[in-house]
TrEMBL record:
The keyword Hydrolase applies. It comes from marine metagenome. InterPro entries: HAD-like_sf (IPR036412), HAD-SF_hydro_IA (IPR006439), HAD_sf (IPR023214), PGP-like_dom2 (IPR023198), S-2-haloacid_dehalogenase (IPR051540). Gene3D superfamilies: HAD superfamily/HAD-like, Putative phosphatase, domain 2. This is Haloacid dehalogenase, type II. Keywords: Hydrolase. GO terms for molecular function: hydrolase activity. The lineage of its organism: unclassified sequences, metagenomes, ecological metagenomes. SUPFAM superfamilies: HAD-like (SSF56784).
């Protein structure tokens, strides 16, 4: 393996806290009380549904930022949150995801991994979202490979094949790193090696919908220091 390609939303970035806090802050302005954590998860589910496999039959007509915006509109209308202003909307669908915090076990490990591998963000997130969150969290990627630029979104095989091509590597020389079986299983079918990293808090107290790794993955790690150790990299 010469390259580690990282799912970024969820595996690297804590979207749940970001969306929950933004929804709660907007609600407090209007004296509204809701299950903000539950609505954050619903926003995530719907935005994924609007993004996964785009480009299968026709060119994508929007990116993941647009998916956040459209999913938020549905959540607001269906939950009686019409008091939210345009500024509230933007604070949730744009400001929050573009300023997400990285999971605390990742930042110190990434430089060590980069000493031994090409480390690329391979994501359905928009280029701008990866740029903004990298700058906020001090992350240095060797490459940012967004499905936005590929024109084929995960889990379409063309997305994985194109990433390997861009890196001038064979698929088996790439290892997809993620906390989601659907992403890793698709990568495996395209010839990638796969590494499952547990993110038990990705969906908050509700827990992840698919917490148990597929045993076919090449590496199953409890966290990023554990991933590094299994790759033979010493972490202090």
């Amino acid at each position: 393996v010469k390259a580690l390609t990282f799912d970024t939303g969820g595996t690297i970035l804590d979207w749940h806290t970001g969306f929950s806090d933004a929804l709660a802050k907007a609600g407090a302005k209007h004296g509204l009380d809701q299950d903000w954590a539950g609505l954050a998860n619903e926003l995530r589910r719907r935005s994924l549904g609007l993004t996964i496999n785009m480009g299968e039959h026709t060119p994508p007509e929007h990116n993941h930022d647009d998916s956040h915006r459209m999913a938020l509109h549905e959540v607001i209308v269906e939950n009686g949150l019409e008091a939210f202003t345009p500024d509230d909307y933007r604070s949730i669908w744009w400001d929050a995801p573009h300023s997400l915090e990285v999971w605390p076990d990742f930042s110190a490990v990434l430089p060590k991994l980069r000493e031994n591998y090409i480390c690329a963000s391979f994501t359905i997130l928009s280029y701008r979202m990866i740029i903004d969150t990298a700058k906020k969290n001090g992350l240095s990627w060797d490459a940012v490979l967004s499905c936005e630029g590929i024109g084929k979104y995960k889990t379409l095989p063309e997305s994985y094949q194109t990433v390997a091509k861009f890196l001038r590597l064979e698929p088996h020389e790439c290892c997809m790193v993620a906390c989601h079986n659907f992403d890793l299983d698709a990568a495996k079918r395209s010839g990638f090696k796969t590494a499952f990293v547990r993110r038990p808090n990705e969906w908050g107290t509700a827990g992840p919908p698919d917490p148990e790794p597929n045993p076919q993955h090449d590496i199953i790690a409890n966290d990023f220091p554990d991933l590094a150790r299994q790759l033979g990299i010493l972490i202090n």
